[in-house]
Fold each of these.
Amino acid sequence: MDLKDEVFDAMLASGQLDDFLDLIDPQKFDEFSRSVFVELRKAVRALESNADKYYNQSEEQISTTISLLLEKSGFQTKSEPSSRGHVDIFVEKDKFKWLIEAKIGYNNQKIFEGLLQLTSRYLNDQRSACLLLYFKKENIKSNFESWKNYIQYKSWMPYAVKENIVEQCELMYGETVIKPNNFCIGNSFLSDAKTTAGEVLDIYNLGVNLHFCPVDSSGRNGKSLKKEQAKIYFEHLYHDRKSGNYIDEVTLYSKLNDYFEFDK
């Protein structure tokens, strides 16, 4: 074996050859990431079709289900592995990897924190990643569009000023645009961003509609459902506490009664 063969075998064994081929043929990674996104959309539709079973689960429980569904599609997944921090879902296949950060869509600031995690902590040499958003409130269309506008029109600026991270946010999202993409339909869109190293990457934003609150007589009068909906209301109220939003006391006392059953 000559020196060239030894070098080739060493690169192959270490995985450096795959990295090199990915650099000279980026379509390989793009095809991989798109295939993950397509299967992720299928997993999302499965959860949305069974929202009555998932609407009251935690972020970690929902993400675990997503991971299992992706594994059934032929990918290897890990829940909360270490990748410069603990990313929610780590997808691998044929030495390619894709990161998915999941967040419950309490409000735009909470979602923005997930984006900050992706671009300032988890992503290093990847060209794309995904922000997966679980919406438990009604009207996902309006809430998801609000998030889209939040990053497109730099509505994060007051939050960045308050947290003293304006310079970093300007670097990462100051030139963010929404990019047309044939794979992004429904509650999804593709945006770009930069890492703190200045590397440009794509962020797939995908919303999951987990709202479940039937208003037929048996649904609206069901004690267990009313209690779970009250709990979800309190969760959103807690995360909105710093936003200065008006609190409807009538609704608040009604939800307190649904949860504790004071009128019993």
Amino acid sequence: MSILKEFDLDIPYINSGTPEDYEANWKQKRIQFRDEIRCVASLVERSFEQYKTSDSWKVLIEVVDVITDPGVKDFSGVCRVQVQFHVDTFFSKNDEEKKEATLDLMRRGIYSIILAKGWDSVPFERALEIAKNQNLINEWYWKKPLVSSNRKYKASLYIVHEVKGIKGILIVANKNNEEILRVEAFRDRPNEWAYLRFLGKLEWSTHNEVVLLDKRNNVVGKATVNKPSDLDILNKDMR
């Protein structure tokens, strides 16, 4: 048994061209496409409940101008299907249109696989609906808030994942959960292969400074509370 947990889209190079042709005319387009669909694809992934299958841990939807390999194929646990779509039109769309196009391509590919393999459609429909109801906005907190040593502050990392980029924002709140500081910690390509290296751990270096460390324990960003916030002063005066 396998646990299905990943969804991805790709525009494979199916021309019988040379490596030089791929490098010159397809590689950058493919990288851009794989980056720009991740905003919606990862939102659907996070909304998806674990689903047990006999052999698949990932769904891969290949977006092609002309379907050359019909049907559903399985390769080492990757369940692959082709969906017809004029790829160049994707790049002419604005960001919101790209989100909608990505969701539609995912829906078409997923339903083709469900029909072919006899999977239960409910968890897939639920994940797609959750993403749609969130207006395809992919923003989330990474892990639980971290409390400072003096118990005065809580720090969180907030991820904002858009079509063309992703950024991590350090947010510090007081003990009443009122936000007092917001600092951008990193900005990168909107693809897990690029930005996951930043997500090591949060750590309070002092009672009023929190740092984000990458997976090699290097400091990515930090937020420092230099003085009591106006809200803290006001709350103190009212006590």
Amino acid sequence: MKALKHMLGAAALAFGICGSASAEIITNTVDPLIDFNINSYFSIGYLHDLRPDGLPGPVINSASLSIYLYDITDLARAHGETVTFRFDGAVAGTTSNVTLWGQDYTFALDTSMLDDGMLWVSLNVGCDRFRFGFCTSPQDVMFARSVLTADITRAGDVPEPATLFSLGAGLLCLAAARRRPTAG
């Protein structure tokens, strides 16, 4: 019975301590009024800024970036574009042959990229053919939106009442389990 009291007390205490932090999901969206054409001549760069949401400061548990691209020129001339994604200047990936109907390209981010609360994104599109150093057959895609999502835990979050109750119950169970009856 005593071992059961110790186990229950330890479990309630651990739940109370571990349950006191609460996660929060924040997002930042870049959505131009008119979809932007990115081509071999004109790249795009933009900033996701989470500073209005209190970053830096909170612990970033995870982060992802979703970029929606489509290609309207597939109607007239189907060809494979090459899009290069860069985050804070580092190449994060490439994709080829963006479709007419488009899709979200989603990337899991290293949380250290958001240490300053900002993420600089740039998109570049390749070229089919060069002549004398100039692109004579450009590629293009349409940029529709970009959504940065971060799962954060703020420092000093106030525990909810159920968490405080669990913590108190764990402490009481441990105190009761420690008390020994005296021999009479």
